[in-house]
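Appendix B. Extra example for self-study. Work through it before the problem class; the solution is given directly after the inputs so you can check yourself.
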Amino acid sequence: DGGITQSPKYLFRKEGQNVTLSCEQNLNHDAMYWYRQDPGQGLRLIYYSQIVNDFQKGDIAEGYSVSREKKESFPLTVTSAQKNPTAFYLCASTGVEGRNQPQHFGDGTRLSIL
Amino acid sequence: GQQLNQSPQSMFIQEGEDVSMNCTSSSIFNTWLWYKQDPGEGPVLLIALYKAGELTSNGRLTAQFGITRKDSFLNISASIPSDVGIYFCAGQLVASNTGKLIFGQGTTLQVKP
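Solution. Structure tokens for the complete assembly:
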């Protein structure tokens, strides 16, 4: 089945540690996005990428980093600089450079602090 | 960043009742999307709207793209327990060519059997 796979489902981070969240899609979508979701809030954009080897900061990029070495993969690293990383992280993708195409989401990764 | 004004924030209704929620903005959008999110899962697309005035149905769900292009509503008729979840509106600005979406804060729906 075509879709977006995020892993792991749950992740725990120690103080001073970097952790990487995986996002893989087999929909042949060009654009991919990372969102952060906190309770009672909408989704906030962290980073997005419209094409391989290129990505842009979203609204809350500080403390995060990404790479886009392959079309189907867009991993997110939560660095030790992110002081409040506890949240639900969602990855999304869309085709045709994202114009007028709805984004489809993975099932998320819940990150917590140990 | 920008956000859409989504209301109501939460609703607690009786099974069988109709539900209405809406999103408004001061900006003009060329696309409106409505998603539903179950606990611990990612949002699932319910309805996509691409033209001002467009009215689209998906089973018991109906959504409309406002004429002014600054608002949208979602109606759910004859609610059932599985309608429980968080409903998000999302819009793509006219000036955007990146596919970036702006999300409302969500409407939490609870249905009493």
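Self-check: Chain B touches chain A at residues 1, 3-4, 6, 30-31, 33, 35, 40-45, 48, 50, 88, 90, 92, 97-101, 103-106 (CB under 8 Å). If your reasoning did not lead you there, revisit section 3.
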